[in-house]
Amino acid sequence: xxxxxxxxxxxxxxxxxxKRAELVSRHRAAAGALAGGERIxxxxxxxxxxDEFVSLRVGRMLYRELKRIDAALARLAAGDYGVCADCGxxxxxxxxxxxxxxxxxxxxxERAQAEPERDELTDWAA
Length: 126
Ligand SMILES: [Zn+2]
Fold this sequence. Notes:
single chain; mainly alpha; Four Helix Bundle (Hemerythrin (Met), subunit A); elongated; binds zinc ion
């Protein structure tokens, strides 16, 4: 059976939207676990606090992923999707297939990974 090939950007958009929906529902599940709490005993409070802490960390991680996906969707809309944000080279299609929200080519990504995560530091300083 032959499937009509999608334009690369259309395929990427679908993958990004699917991933976005998944992240949103995961975030909702994590937030629901917090908000859905009935009255809890003193004994359970430490555990609840721990759960909350974990959920916040998960939430922050999901939020960061969500921001990446939204940025990729914005690049798609602007027509510069698949272009490395650092050097302007085309990001290989196979890389975009694996990581539809990739914003850098492999070489630039490796360079960026070698640097300390700056947004993490400013998060804490804020
Ligand atoms: Zn690059």
